[in-house]
Amino acid sequence: MEELPTRALKRGARLAALPVTFAGRQVVGWGRRVGGRPADLVAAELQARTAEQLFSTLGELKGGAMKAGQWLSAMEAALPEQLAGPYGQALTRLQEAAPAMPMRTVHQVLSEQLGPRWRERFREFDDRPAAAASIGQVHRAVWRDGRVVAVKVQYPGAGDALASDLRQLDRLVPIVRVAAPGIDPRALFSELRARVMAEVDYRQEAEAQAAFASALRDDPDFVVPAVVEVTDRVLVSEWVDGTPLSQVARAGERVDRDRAGLLLTRFLLSSPTRVGRLHGDPHPGNFRLHADGRLVVVDYGSTLPMATGWPPRVAGLLLAGRDRDARRLMDVAIAAGLVVNDAVTPQGLLELIDPMLEPLRIEAFTFTRDWMRSLTTRMSDPRSAAARSQRRLHMPARHLLVQRVAVGTAGVLCLLGATVPVRREAAVWLPQLNA
Questions:
Q1: Does 135 score more than 60 pLDDT?
Q2: Residue 132 to residues 6, 98, 366: CA-CA distances in angstroms?
Q3: How many domains does the chain have?
Q4: 38 and 169 share one domain
C-alpha cells in the first residue's frame, strides 16, 4: 500500500507544469485579441480555464497541495458550476480514498510516541481506524481510567510531505494572480504555510482544543472533547458520540436540521468572543448532533486566533450591507483594505454582497441549494457587475480564512436546508447590528 507521498521531485513537477501551460494559454489569448475578440471576454476565458486547471491539479494532489486547494475553495462559491464541479469531485474522491495506515505502522508510531509499553495506557485499543484523512487517522480506544477516547495518529512523514509541497507553492503565484486577481498570492501562501504546518503540530492543536473546551465547559449548546494526552504525533481526546451533520442533512427530521443549523451559526458567531479563536474548518464531518441536542465540535488543527473578538469593521461591513448603504459600505471596505485605488464602485460593491446578506434582513432565513446556486450564478457571467467587483476586490490573506469559514458554514447550512434566525444570533455577538 502506498504511503503518504513524499517524493518532492515528482510532486513538484505537477505544480511546475501549471505555469508552463499558463504561459501557452496567454499566447493563445493574445492571438485571439489580435483576431478581434473583445479583451474582457478573452481575459474572462483565460481566468476561467486557469482556475479550472488550478483547482483540478490541486485537488488531485495530496498533502500541502491538497490543503492549498482546500483554502482556495473559499472562492468556489464565486465560480461557475462547470469549474467548481470538477474540483469538488476531485477533492471528494481524494478524501474518500484516503488510505489507512498498516497496523504495524500505527503500532510503531504509538510505541515511539507513548513508549514501548503503550498498550498499558489503554484498557482496549481498536486497530480498525474510525476515520482517515490527509494527515492522520483516528482509532477508538478505552483509556486506562475507563474513559472512551479517540486516538489521532499522524502519518509518518506527514510533516515532511507538507513542507515539501508548501515549498513548491510559489510556482503558482502567476496562476493565482489570474485565477483570483484580488488575492496577493505570496501573502496567501505565507499565511497558508503557517496554518497548514500548524495542523501537523498536534501540541498546538491540543492547546486550541483545550481553549475551546475550557471556554465551553458545561455549555448547554456545545460539546468539545477534552484533551487526555498529546505528543508530537499522537493526540488523545475524549470520545463523544453523535450523528454527523452529513447524516442529519440526509435523513434528519426538520427539527433536528434546524437545531443543527442554529447551533452551527451560533458556534461560528460566538467563538471569537467567547474563546478568542475561530474554528477554521467548517466541514460536516467535524460536527455532530448529540442525542441531547448539543453540537459536538471536533478537529481543532485549523483555528484563527482572535484575541479581541470580531474586529469592529466586520460589524460595520455587515450593517452597511444589510441596510444597503452603498457609500458607507465603500468607506468601511476602503478602511479595511478590501478596495484599493477605486477599483470598485460603491454600487458595484453593494451589488456583489447584497444577496449574501439576505439572512440578516428577515426574522428567520431558510438556507437552500437554490440560494447558494443563485449566488454562484451571479458570478458566472464575467461581464456582470458582481463578477467584475469580485475580481477587483483586494483580499488580504488573513481575511481569506474568515471568508472560507463563512462560505463553508453557509454551505453546510444549505446542505441541512436549515431555517435559522441569523439576524437575532448575529445581533447577540455583534451588538452593533442592533443599530
A1: yes
A2: 18, 6, 33
A3: 3
A4: yes
